[in-house]
Amino acid sequence: MILIDYRNVEIRKDENVILKEVDFSLNEGEFLYIIGKVGSGKSSLLKTIYREMRIREGTASVFNYDLCTIKNKHIPFLRRKIGIVFQDFHLLTDRSVRKNLLFVLKATGWKDKTAMQKRMEEVLEQVGMSNKHYKYPHELSGGEQQRIVIARALLNSPPLILADEPTGNLDPETGAQIVQLLHDISKTGTAVIMTTHNYHWVQNFPGKVMKCENQRLIKGEV
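Above: the chain's sequence. Below: its structure in token form.
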């Protein structure tokens, strides 16, 4: 099943062309690296997928939503199908891990307290953080925080995870654990797109590769 389909897409910020003639697709359960130097357009491409940035030229669909014509009222429904993992965590610092997860569940329409508790326990177990639910973000290491971010991204069982430089603030050993975790998630049927400028991950944890270079998205080789 095709989740993402881009054809001849141009991505611009104001009048500046960031990427042009973008053609790519992503299937259910695939793991795709988007590699390239800092500033090459990787994050901008991800932002178009969850409609933070608008596409004005070409054709693009995500979960059969047309990104060129999607109405604002439908964007939240698109985003509920996508889990997003940021480099700098974006956790709420004034509340515990459990309350961070609870906030997302409530914001996305969950009502049943028993079901919410069960789902939080499931995702924390999946990322190896079952015993950290009472901790605050500042009490966790960078790797632990990133695991919580991944747990948060998994709450609504999305078919797609977007991980934007998820190892950027982590040491190599912790980074490797996070990349392995994302690969394990993709093996359960959830597609993953991970941006990185660290080619080491691609060599050690193989996946499909595309590269942002000279305003193009091309089949990547490391």
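The longest strand covers residues 2-13.
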